[in-house]
């Protein structure tokens, strides 16, 4: 498997489909696929990357931020992988912030997201867990989890007039 691939772009049916759950945990194939997701995310300087964006309709995504030039104001966020995730609680408090997506290059738009979420997911070994997060990390998870359900951020925008072009 090559180190990275072209990102699947908006308009591809894979980005409009519901991804299927991972059923084989702790395998060499899954470990290699997760590495591949991280490598591809790093290559394109993404804050997160979901499996459908590299052509795999599987319920897994990675994220992490460390001095990312595409997100100069973002805090550093530890690299993480979520498998078969589902959000089980959303805070009523919402925050409006600009989002981008590697599948929609050079476009940003204002999206309202819950400031705090609780999700459930499975570890690489297949152990169930729940976690509560807030701020930018909660936003990333909401954005990436949308990818697993065939949703892209413009579908979450309340005002299409906030759409803007950026140089990266
Ligand atoms: Ni995206």
Classify the helix fraction into a percent range: 10-25%
Arithmetic mean pLDDT: 96
Largest sheet: 5 strands, antiparallel
Bound compounds, each kind once, are: nickel (II) ion
**Using DSSP, what is the number of strands?**
8
This entry's quaternary arrangement is: single chain
End-to-end distance, in Å?
27 Å
Q: What is the string of SSEs from the N terminus onward?
A: HEEEEEEEHE
Backbone shape: globular
Unreliable segments of 5+ consecutive residues: none
Spatial ordering of strands, largest sheet: 1-2-3-6-7
Main structural class: alpha+beta
Number of helices, counting only DSSP H or I runs of 4 residues or more: 2
Return Rg in Å.
15 Å
Strand composition percent:
25-35%
Characterize this entry briefly:
This protein is an alpha+beta fold and 168 residues long. The chain has two helices and eight strands. The model has no long low-confidence stretch (mean pLDDT 96).
Description:
The protein is globular and about 45 Å long. The model has no long low-confidence stretch (mean pLDDT 96). The longest helix is centred in the first third of the chain and has 16 residues, at 28-43. It has 168 residues and is α+β, with helices and mostly antiparallel strands. A 5-stranded antiparallel β-sheet has the order 1-2-3-6-7, with helices on both faces. The two termini are 27 Å apart. 17% of the residues lie in helices and 35% in strands. Nickel (II) ion binds at residues 101-103, 143, 147.
